[in-house]
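We treat protein structure as text, and this decision shapes the records that our systems exchange. Because each token names a local backbone shape, the row as a whole describes the fold. For reference, a complete record is included directly beneath this paragraph.
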Amino acid sequence: MTHLPTGITITYIHQYHSVDIDLSQVTNNTEVEFNARPTCIQAVSCKACLSQSINFNCSFCPELNECSDGMNRWRNKWKNFGCPKSKITKADECPFESEKSL
């Protein structure tokens, strides 16, 4: 999100994923089922974030206490809080977490 001196706020929308469907296979009475893939934002702790075996490059932002690959729907918040600079990328760099937060 960008705030201009004029008071105008600009929000950027980024495409995260696309879905390719062969429309020749879709006819009347056809059902298409979409299953969400696991993503970084599902992790609830730093260690859980960095130990996931998914096809994303997850990082943990200590300022937000959130996991992200920096490109999800919370990308603007991730950038605004300085997470690209302060992110944690290795599990041994995670702050101490009680078992309750894991």
